[in-house]
Each structure stands twice: as C-alpha cells, then as structure tokens.
Write a structure and sequence with these properties.
The complex is a heterodimer of chains A (484) and B (355). With 484 residues, chain A is an alpha+beta fold. Helix content of chain A is 29%, strand content 23%. Chain A has 14 helices and 24 strands. Chain A has a 5-stranded mixed beta sheet. In chain A, strands 7-6-21-22 form a 4-stranded antiparallel beta sheet. Chain A is globular, with a radius of gyration of 23 Å. The two termini of chain A are 27 Å apart. Chain B is mostly helical. Chain B has one domain. Helices cover 73% and strands 0% of the residues of chain B. Chain B is built from 17 helices and no strands. The radius of gyration of chain B is 20 Å and the shape is globular. Chain B starts with a helix and ends with a helix. Classes of the chains: A alpha+beta (484), B mainly alpha (355). Chains A and B meet through helix 2, helix 9, strand 9, strand 10 and strand 11 of A and helix 1, helix 5, helix 6 and helix 16 of B.
C-alpha cells in the first residue's frame, strides 16, 4: 500500500523527513509496506487485533460497567528509533534513574539536598507521594526504584524531552512484549531483513533484579507479584509478568504476617515470602501505616520490611518522584548528586506557586498545558490550545485555590507516525515509555541500569489529539530500535 | 500452591463441566421431543426439576414452556447455572489465575466465552433452532479438557482441576439419570413400551454413553442403563469412574498414601466404597431416585470437606487484625466452595426431595 499522498505536515514525523522521503533507517520498512496491498495490510491489522483479543490482552476501564475489558488498539505501522539515537536515550535514562534514586535515598534519610538549599523542604513535604513512615528506611543495596517507566516525547523539531517519571508502579511493558510477538507473526520477513533489537529479555532481567533483592541468608528466595486483583486496569500485565517469570501472583488476601515474616496461604499451610514485586500504589500496601481504608494491602507489612525480612520493589515512598513539581527539580538533582548536566532535558515547567510565574500562567492558559501535580493517566489536565473559555476559567480557579497542586508547561506539538486509519495512512501523535530496571547486583556487569530497547509507543488515534492514554482513546505501536 | 488459586482452578473446571452438562440436559430433551409421537405432551418441566433451580425459575418465568426453560438454562444471566453464567464464571476464575494455567488453556476458555457471548447476543427467537450451539458447547468443554491435559503439568493444580471436573460430572450424570424419574409416561402401561425405550436411549445419548453402552449390553432396560451410568468401571462419565479418579487426585493433592488422615479423603473414600459394594437390588429397593438424591448430598459434603481441608484458612493462623480477616473472607465468599456448592447443594437436594 502506497504512502503516496502521505503528508508529514508541519510536524516532526518519525518515519518521513519530508513528503515521500523516509528517514534512512525507515527506508526499507516503507518499501516493504508499500509492497503489501492495502487489503492485505488491513487484514493483518485485523488479525493482529483479534490475536490480542483472543489472548485477552485487555485493560479495564474504570466506570465502564458493560464489557469493562477493552483491547488496547494496535496499529501495524511501527515507530522506529535509530541505533545512534537510542544509545543517547539510554544514557540519558540511566543518568536520570540513578539521580532519582540518590534523591529518594537522601530525602528519606539525611535530606542533604534540602539542607543545601537545592530543593525547598516544603516542596518535598507537600508532595503527594511523600510518605513519612518511610523516613529512615534502608532498602537492600540502597536501591529504591527498581522498575521505572519514563515518558519521553519529541517536539516539532524532533528534540527529545522527558515528560513524566513513573516510579510508583509503571505499567505497559506487557504491551511492548505482546506487540512485538504480534508484529513478528504478521510481518516475519521484515524481521529477517532489518536488524531490530530484541525486547524479549525483559522478564528475565526483571526476575534477576527481583531475586537480587532477597535477604542474603535466603538461598532459594520466594518472589511474588502483588496485584490489587482481576478488576485492576493493568491486571492482564500483572498476570502476564508473573507467568513469564514463573513467580506467584498474589492478592493482599493471600498474604499474612506470621511470626515476624510475610507468608502466603497455600494448600499446605503458610509459606514464607522473601521478595514482593508490588503492583499496588505504595499508600495502599499497609493499612496500619498508610491509608487505613486500603483493602488491598497487608496489615503489618511495613514493619516486616523495616526489619529487612522481606524486600519490596519498588520501595514504598518512591511515589514522591511522580509528583510533577518534584519532576521539575530533576535537572538540579542530576547536578547535585552526579555532578553532570542533564542529557535528556525536561519540558520547561512553570510553577503556579511562584507569584510571577502564576501570573504568566493565568495570562496564557490558552496556549499552555496545565497539569495537576499528583495526577496521571491524562486525567486532571488542561490542554490550553484545545480548551474552551469555561474550562480555562475553571482551571484558573483551581490554580488560585491550590497553587502547589498545579504546574504548567508549553504545549508540545508531539511528533507523529503514519498510522493506518480507514484505509489511508494518516499522521498521529505519539509518545514513548521506555522501561528501566535498576539493581546493584553484579549480574548487570556493573551498576548501570538496564533499559529495555524501545518501550511502549502510545499513539493518540483521534485526529489532532495529543492525549495518548489508553483510557482516553489511545492505542499502541511496536517500537523498533535498530542495531546500528 | 495458593489456596485462592486452588479454589479458582477447581471452580473453573466445575463451571466448564457444568456448562457442558447443561447442554447435555437440553439435548436429551430436544431429542426426546423430536421422537415423541404426536399427541404426547411436550415436557420441559423435568429439566427444571432435575437441575434444582425450580424456585428461581418460577420467580423469573412461571410457566415451563420450551422457550422459557431453554432461555433459563442457556442464556439467562440471572440464573447462576445457565450455560452463559457458567462460562462467564469459568472465565472470571480463569482470569484471576491465568498466570498459573497454560496460555493455551486461557485462549481456549476465552474463545469459549466469546462464542457463548456471541450466541447470546444473536440468539434466535426459538432457541430450539440453535441446537448446534449445544453441540458446540460440549465440544468447547472437550477442547478445554484436551488442551489442559496436553499443555499443563499434571501437578497439584491439575489435580484440583480434575477434582472439580469429576465431582461435577458425577453429580450431573446422576441428574441425567434422574431426568427419567421426572418424565411422565402417558400411562402406567407405557413402561417398557417403545416410547419408554426411546427415552432411555435418548438419556444414554445425552451422556455420550449410547455407543459405549451398546458394546457391553445388548438390550435397553432401565436396570442396565442405570447400572452402566452408575457402575461401569471404564466409561469416563459413569459415577463410579468419576469417584475413583477423583479419589486418586485427592490423594495426590493431600500427599497421604496408606493412612488417610484428612476429612475430605475419608468422605470421598467412604462414598466410593459404598458404590463399590452396594448391589443394584439394594438400590432399586431404596428407589433409584432416592439413591441418586442421597448421592448428590454426599458429593456436596465431599466438596465442603475439600474446602475446609485446603482452601479455608486454618483457624490457627487467622491474622490478628480485623481488616485482614474481613478482607479474606470477603474475597472468598464471591466464589467459595461453601457458597457455590452450598448453593447448588441446598437447592438441588431440597428440591429433589420436594418433588
């Protein structure tokens, strides 16, 4: 099917440098796609979609009663990243994670960064994910954020930015693995012709990271994945990862504290658990220390954790880094802890707390993006260019009432990738969430975090839309990182 | 393995087997009606009697017409034992443990679910027209069993699945046999008549037993049919076969050998040996219906014991915190052994007695 007539428009296009001119790394892909008749391409797209449906690769939409499971729409045109770009991104992500980890360890212990005046105490203590019960914690090997998903975007010029950090419990890696599986079966010849970095290593790397966390005296550690249950939006991923790693998937009700240890209820009685990969938010993991209304966690878990008798990934307390005001300080953290300049820049961020900046924000609501500092998933935000006057007024009130709760950023015109929409290729905006694993075990051959090549490319399927979240009409694409 | 997972695997298999057997119930009746001479009343009431959901049926439908009964047993989401509800429950259970079952098993259940949902959306006005659907349901259940046997390790989890399937099948075979008890013949003289014979044949067919029966018996007689479905040691749907295999699985799960220690093992062992030694004359003296009725009650007790032995949290380790214990019982009550089997047990047995 021909790309004739496909217009990259006034955007950065991930596959075309200009109309009819693909980027060098995409040339062969474009040629191959053009040799496939449109009907066949549509059939493959449908087959891929129905494979995902049959596999039950679904997510749940909250507040949607009838047929709560949805398939995350999948588009057959992959997004490509050149090997050179990837090497640079990988370094930037490793740098960021190491710095964030230093920050977490510092903020819950010595708080040097506050004492040295780099970040105001109030900013830290007012962050939604800041958990005082975690003060003084010493996680194994000093690692707090074992698993991170960092959201990257490119602007109109093609420059990369970090849009968001997800250290609490990032999801989406199962789609990376399943999308690749589906693409391999749909376009086997392309994988032979192109030198694409494999992604399948992720579960093994994750398991290795988790096993390394077990208390030293345990020879054969019991690792479990703690899920909120089948009604959680990311449940598919929880069970998928547990299965791929061969570990037990547990719910809070399966665990109990007995004799100072975490144990799970089995058909043969209680069995000790050594490492918990938690996929519930940190303020839900122990109702006796955090939210008392949590039915998902395990009462008493934090105390066992403090005693070093169980490891938890990610460590409780990491959620503070997801706060969008804390995000704005990452360049300072990198400078402070690593004495380096940030490799992948942040999106410029305006603080509503600052009087002058607030005035600027309020005067420019029509062109800025306003985000609640404690929200995620595309909720709680205002995209100025696509908003009504009433919506802007509403946000202006919210900002004035709670300046700490909001930040603003310029509207980035996200890069686009050709996407199969009703028998034609049309440009749609994308972001990228790579997944990073951080552990200090020697099995890494060093202490650099492992970055899975590529990541989840989310695509806003609605024309002109900049919101890529699955809950808001987003889909996904396979991401091909080339071996250069 | 986790108790919660064992519970789900057990129920997942029970529900699939139950869906298959409801399809069998419906098929036997559809077959019977087609063979009935003109003028013999169409009887749909016995199906409701034998599945034991009489109270719910009366409340939802009232009259036992073909349309009502078929809809109730097949596509009614308000009936917990309809094919649609069973397959939904099976899938929900599978979904909550899908990392422990093979991908092939999950895909099979998911395909089964999608097929039934599509059929429910698209059902014909007269469900009798949809008779291939029942064949498909049976096939889907067989496929699931085949896939499970060929792709999952025959470990503790598999044995829990076997246990669920076999106990459900034993119960349902006894109910298929019981259909005849509720089917009215036009007159007392009709006993042993061609119509009577046709009914027994249809019954055998609905248990997929006709051909295998023919290999060991030459004549169709009530005694022979009942004997075959209860006692045949080789036929995989006979009650005895199911109980013997269930006992093997239970022993593997419990890990005990010569000395049986667990209450569930004792209950199942007792029930199996009763079948081993009872004579057919004794059964007929007692009344076949009464015998089957007691058997169903005993099977439910076995289910309850399995629940206490392996699934319910041992009382000694109950967490001190109120929150945790509330949470725990809350999770299980949605689909626990006690609830589901208790529900069916209560309904099935009391209603059969009331008949």
């Amino acid at each position: 099917m021909s790309f004739k007539g496909y217009d990259p428009g006034d955007f950065y296009d991930e596959l075309f440098s200009a109309t009819g001119v693909p980027w060098p790394e995409a040339a062969l892909l474009i040629e191959r796609i053009e040799s496939v008749p449109i009907e066949s391409l549509i059939l493959r797209q449908q087959a891929a979609q129905s494979t995902l449906f049959k596999l039950g690769v679904t997510f749940n939409v909250y507040g949607d009663e009838e047929g709560a499971e949805k398939v995350f729409p999948f588009d057959v045109v992959p997004r490509m990243v050149s090997g050179k770009t990837w090497d640079w991104l990988e370094k930037g992500l490793q740098q960021r994670i190491v710095a964030l980890n230093c920050f977490l360890d510092d903020i819950y212990n010595e708080q040097k960064i506050i004492a040295d005046g780099v970040i105001p105490r109030a900013t830290v203590e007012s962050a939604s994910g800041y958990l005082p019960p975690c003060l003084g914690l010493k996680p194994p090997q000093g690692v707090w954020c074992h698993i991170t998903g960092t959201d990257l975007v490119r602007d109109r010029k093609g420059d990369w930015f970090v849009l968001e950090d997800n250290l609490r419990c990032p999801s989406g890696v199962s789609y990376v693995l399943e999308n690749r599986r589906v693409m391999k079966s749909s376009f086997p010849s392309l994988f032979e012709a192109l030198d694409i970095k494999a992604v399948d290593d992720y579960p093994s790397q994750l398991l290795r990271t988790l096993l390394a966390l077990a208390p030293e005296n345990i020879s054969n550690p019991m690792v479990v994945l703690l899920t909120p249950g089948a009604f959680n939006s990311a449940y598919f991923e929880h069970s998928f990862l547990a299965q791929q790693m061969g570990i037990t998937l547990v719910e809070g009700c399966d665990l109990v504290i007995d004799d100072g240890y975490v144990k799970m209820r089995t058909t043969r009685g209680l069995c000790q658990v050594d490492v918990i990969y938690r996929r519930i938010d940190d303020d839900f993991i122990d109702p006796t220390e955090f939210r008392p209304d949590s039915m998902l966690g395990v009462p008493g878990l934090m105390e066992v954790y403090r005693q070093g008798r169980v490891a938890i990934a990610n460590a409780p307390g990491t959620g503070i880094a997801d706060d969008k005001l804390i995000y704005a300080y990452v360049p300072q953290m990198i400078r402070y802890y690593l004495n380096e300049e940030q490799i992948i820049p942040n999106v410029p961020t305006y603080f509503c707390e600052d009087e002058k900046q607030q005035a600027y924000i309020l005067a420019n609501l029509g062109s800025l993006v306003v985000k609640a500092t404690d929200a995620s998933g595309g909720y709680g935000m205002l995209i100025g260019t696509q908003s009504t006057k009433a919506q802007q007024d509403h946000f202006a009130e919210k900002i004035k009432a709670n300046p700490r709760g909001y930040i603003a950023q310029p509207t980035l015109c996200l890069s686009r990738v050709p996407t199969l929409i009703e028998k034609t290729f049309q440009g749609r905006h994308v972001d990228l969430r790579p997944f990073i694993l951080y552990g200090k075990s020697s099995s890494y051959g060093g202490t650099a975090p492992y970055v899975n090549p590529g990541g989840l490319t989310r695509v806003a399927l609605r024309e002109g839309s900049l919101v890529v979240n699955s809950s808001q009409g987003g889909g996904s694409k396979d991401t091909w990182v080339m071996n250069s | 393995m986790l108790s919660r997972v064992a519970d789900s695997i057990y129920w997942l298999n029970r529900y699939i087997e139950r869906a298959e057997n409801v399809a069998r119930f419906v098929e036997v009746n559809l077959n019977l009606l087609m063979d009935n001479p003109i003028g013999v009343t169409q009887q749909w009431d016995p199906l409701i009697a034998v599945t034991g959901d009489r109270a719910l049926f009366s409340q939802l439908y009232g009259e036992a017409t073909a349309r009502n009964v078929l809809n109730f047993l097949t596509f009614d989401s308000h009936s917990p034992n309809s094919i649609l509800s069973c397959v939904r429950s099976a899938r929900e259970n599978a979904r909550s443990v899908r990392e422990t079952i093979s991908s092939e098993m999950w895909e099979q259940i998911n395909a089964f679910y999608l097929m039934v949902e599509a059929a429910a959306k698209d059902k014909p006005d007269d469900i009798r027209e949809a008779h291939e659907f029942y064949a498909e349901v049976k096939m889907a259940s067989h496929r699931f069993n085949g896939v499970m046997n060929a792709t999952a390790s025959w470990n503790e989890s598999w044995h829990f699945g076997q246990l669920g399937r076999l106990l459900e099948r034993a119960d349902k075979t006894s109910r298929i046999l019981d259909v005849k008890y509720f089917l009215l013949l036009p007159s007392a003289k009709a006993v042993g008549s061609p119509l009577d014979n046709l009914q027994w044949i249809a019954l055998l067919k609905s248990a997929s037993a006709y051909e295998m029966y023919r290999k060991v018996e030459q004549t169709i007689s009530p005694t022979n049919v009942a004997r075959f479905l209860i006692f045949d040691p080789h036929f995989p749907r006979s009650i005895k076969f199911c109980l013997c295999r269930a006992e093997e699985s239970l022993r593997k799960i419990a890990g005990t050998d010569e000395i049986q220690t667990l209450p569930s093992e004792r209950a199942l062992g007792r029930l199996r040996s009763e079948l081993e030694y009872v004579t057919f004359e004794e059964i007929f003296q007692q009344g076949l219906h009464e015998f089957l009725d007691k058997l169903q009650g005993d099977l439910n007790q076995v289910g309850d014991r399995i629940y206490t032995d392996f699934i319910a949290v041992p009382p000694t380790v109950l967490p001190s915190s109120d929150i945790a214990s509330r949470q725990f019982s809350g999770q299980f009550s949605t689909q626990s052994f006690t609830q589901s089997s208790g529900q069916s047990a209560g309904q099935f047995s009391t209603l059969s007695k009331a008949e």
